[in-house]
Write a structure and sequence with these properties.
The protein is mostly beta strands. It has no helices and twelve strands. The strands form two sheets. Strands 1-3-5-7-9-11 form a six-stranded parallel beta sheet, with no helix packed on it. The protein has a six-stranded parallel beta sheet with strand order 2-4-6-8-10-12, with no helix packed on it.
């Protein structure tokens, strides 16, 4: 089930949301997501996301994120593997490692750790250059 986030115009590039964890919710383990998902609760473990993952200002996450587009306004401690973009917003705090082709840190955002800039999946494809032999003779 997907729905529009109520009362928001800044849906972080997505109109449909598949779910959220509200402030006060605690989860320990692995969370697998499809679609845009927002976390404002506490998670200790792994998050696997196919689309956009948004950690709101109240979010406290410790563990590993494997995703596409990751937006952090809360606190994250661990390792992020992103195929797309990672954004640390003005109130976001990230401690650990980030593996991504694109990292954006807004003024006020904090990142303490290591960043590994990867090539995008398109750039990672091998380049083939046709070579033609000239006839000698």
């Amino acid at each position: 089930m997907a729905w529009k986030w109520p009362g928001r115009g800044d849906d972080h590039h997505a109109d449909e949301w598949t779910g959220f964890l509200e402030k006060g919710v605690r989860l320990e383990g692995t969370l697998e997501l499809a679609g845009t998902f927002r976390v404002d609760g506490q998670i200790k473990g792994n998050i696997l996301s196919e689309h956009s993952l948004i950690l709101g200002e109240a979010a406290r996450v410790e563990g590993q994120i494997e995703g596409n587009h990751v937006v952090i306004s809360g606190r994250f401690d661990g390792v992020i593997f992103a195929k797309g973009r990672v954004e640390i917003q003005a109130k976001g705090v990230v401690t650990g490692e980030i593996h991504t082709p694109c990292l954006v840190i807004e003024p006020g955002g904090i990142f303490d750790g290591r960043c590994h800039m990867l090539t995008s999946s398109e750039a990672a494809k091998p380049l083939t250059i046709p070579i033609r032999a000239a006839n000698q003779g």
